[in-house]
Amino acid sequence: MLVIAGAMVAWAQQVPQVTNVMNRESVSLNGDWHYLVDVQEEGYYDYRMNPTRWGFFNNAKPQRPEDLIEYDFDAAPTMKVPGDWNTQDERLFFYEGTVWFQRYFDYQPQNDRRALLYFGAVNYDCHVYVNGRKAGHHVGGFTPFNFDVTDLLHEGKNFVIVKVDNKRSASAVPTQIFDWWNYGGITRDVLLVSVAPTYIESYSLQLEKAVKGKKRFLNLSLQLNRKEAGREVTLSIPDLKLKQTFVTDANGIINSQFSILNSQLKLWSPENPKLYRVDLTLNGETLSDEIGFRTIETRGKQILLNGAPVFLKGICLHEEKPNGGGRANSTGYARMLLTWAKELGCNFVRLAHYPHNEYMVREAERMGILVWSEIPCYWTIDWKNEATFLNAQQQLTDMIARDKNRANIIIWSIANETPHSQERDAFLGKLATYARTQDNTRLISMAMEVTGQSNYVNRLNDNMNKYVDVVSFNQYVGWYRDVNDAPKMRWEIPYDKPVIISEFGGGAKYGLHGAKNQRWTEEFQENLYRENLAMLDKIDGLAGTTPWILKDFRSPRRVLTGIQDYYNMKGLVSDKGERKKAWYVLHDWYKGK
Ligand code: GCB
Fold this sequence. Notes:
The protein is an alpha+beta fold.
């Protein structure tokens, strides 16, 4: 609470994201929320386009019969949160603009505990209000954020209102054009998290690469929300019979290393995705997690998982439900998509082109699937714009903060298919360097493009090569270029680093058959996969691939009537999960790897 000239002013602020939100004490605010579509944002601006204090966030009600209030959330329809509006209201299928959301909830203050209002993700720009007061503003559609709203709450009935805007903009991340559906809304969980005044904000527990004699080392770094020295945090891993107490420094931080017996430790791997229960106790309150221990590094052109070379048998995925689309956000959907990937023979998924929900990452971890996680620096970002850089950097920070304890994530990707320029190199170079300050235990990559080609020789030439640990690129031989010429292609990748072909593929409509040179048939796609995979086999240092893509997905760029109907058809399975012929080609290739 802030006191200004004797008056009490309620106060709220965005606070750094709390990690491991799923295992904290919280109340879910998921469910039915009322919504109002506001094309001209009259709930926010007056008729001179100035922000108005009479906005919809007041949730006003007429007090007298003659009062004029031209909105009423309580009478408005409802939709499910989390969820996108495009697939919940037919009228909003193509809508890109502002929608207001409102719901009531009960709150009982408990002693000195604080309440954080947590959003798993809101696409894209949102203003959040509690009981008519501003809690904060957030930009970016795929990362979590939370506000300390304790002082805006009261005992009993409260309301929260969120203005969500998913309009595209040239300076946004992603920018105006991208090849997926711009699902709008509160697309991930909303929670009211209860924390003590001093709480564990974030932590990471990582296995050190080196083995010394019979010992291995774990690095703990932990941050309290307050700069309080001398606070004791006890870490215990019952399965390892380990219990140790650490003390915070003047910044409320613990950075410590401790040893365990190598023979005791079972490493996490796709074959044995062992997770240990880890308890962190501060002031009698325990935060539990499931953490796996493994190492990831490169040696020349190899990727080493737990010290041994691994070939990444991958597939790209969008965060989309089967059977008509819509954002996926549950363990159930994660398991469905990841089971399809496993049946294909994958040990790796590229979660394109933005951080997916936490259920996805955690389920993949339990299933033994390695992960490439990416931020939406996609195509033509506004490289010269400092605000755009800060936005991308924040998305990267939040992606890493949320998932830095997931053993299955091995690659942070900072971009996809970005056009070369000095400004782009400066932007992405800074971002890659920054990523290492946030996590120096994983590999950095980005999906590049092939830049030079002559006489069937393809060259990868990208100034970003020095910033990445793994050289990845997308190529569409057989689809956007060089149809039938894959067998003649050679690749020159002049870097002594592992190579991942992060995309290749072509479109086919499930059930459409014809000759192998007939576009959109399953046979065309099948042949494309055969020829591409034979071509990949000739690439020196190939450490893995993630073909484009597991499932057909919705995209407004794909307008060919009767074939695409607003779906990108490059899936190996249809939107309903039916396997196309190319599925079997990749499946057999992976079987031999
Ligand atoms: C790409 C993009 C991906 C598209 C794909 C396509 O290179 O990275 O987002 O969907 O090509 O189908 O053209």
